[in-house]
Amino acid sequence: KKADIDALRVPGVMPHLVAATGYVKGVDTVRAGEKIEDVTFTGVEAQFPVVEDVRIGEGRFFDETEEKNNARVIVLGSQVKQDLFNDAPAVGEMVKLKRESFKVVGVMEPRGERAFQNYDTQVFVTLVTAQKVLLGINHISLARLKIDSAENVDEAQELVKSVLRARHNITKKDQDDFSVRSQLDALRIFTTATDALKLFLAAIAALALLVGGIGIMNIMLIAVQERIKEIGLKKAVGATNRAIMQQFLIETVVITIAAGMIGIVLGAGISGVVALVARGLGYQWQYIISWNSIIAALGMSAAIGLIFGLYPARHAARLEPVEALRYE
């Protein structure tokens, strides 16, 4: 509850605390005149800009006095402001959220999506107003705290747990009715998941390369089989085993590089379409083609050609000219 956050703010309880805010969320429509937009509304406290490091582009954020007085004030995300007011000033105007009238006191600077949150498409009201007026609840969904330095995060986590256990009359750790996580914890989890995903994708890529390489090898073995007389004739007129081997290796590498180029074009095209669709849906996805990746892909294609083309090339080079010319 909000009282838990207030307990953490008591001087001396958390010496490394910079700011804290509770959060509740809901979904509804916001109206300005004849314009209506579907939005996520978020109830927060006055210290929200400090905790989240957000900047106000127009006007201001609501203060603690407005919060205590349950004032009907609202701060708009930049995209919501644009949708409702276009380029006209929004500060001082009235909007309706859940049939309640709110005065616009500020507009956030464009921020984009960060950590799966897009504040540009949200609106912000005081925590108490969101709880009592818009949602009819007395609890909070989560609280976020800003600590003065990363070195003090672990200590702050333990202090939060101690305070909450004391307030909730919890004597054993396994009875906690809350969870406390830091951004470092989230980063560790994300890194672990990313590493596992990279390993999984690498295994799939390796399997795909193996299957593709075996396919190339079979194709070249068939090519050797179909060109036995040609090989015999070349060896009969003086072609060396080395020359025959080089010929088939070059052919294999050319095939694999051509296949790699086709894959690059298809991959770039599909990625471009996905990025275009994502932008249309409001996601800030960047379409980037890395030349290093292209060079690496072509190099891998050539390597696959060399490795899996070696056996068919050696098989062709070892054919006896007389037997090859007699082959039917």
Automatic annotation (TrEMBL):
Pfam families: FtsX (PF02687), MacB_PCD (PF12704)
Domain of life (superkingdom): Bacteria
All copies of domain ABC3 transporter permease C-terminal, residue ranges: 203-321
Membrane topology, as annotated: Multi-pass membrane protein
Residue ranges of the TM segments: 199-224, 248-277, 289-311
Main location class: membrane
GO cellular component terms, semicolon-separated: plasma membrane
Domain MacB-like periplasmic core intervals: 4-162
Annotated GO MF terms: ATP binding; transmembrane transporter activity
Keywords: ATP-binding, Cell membrane, Membrane, Nucleotide-binding, Transmembrane, Transmembrane helix
Record localization: Cell membrane
Coiled coil: none
InterPro entries associated with the record: ABC3_permease_C, MacB_PCD, Macrolide_Exporter_MacB
Family in the record: Belongs to the ABC-4 integral membrane protein family.
Protein name: Macrolide transport system ATP-binding/permease protein
Species of the source: Candidatus Magasanikbacteria bacterium GW2011_GWA2_45_39
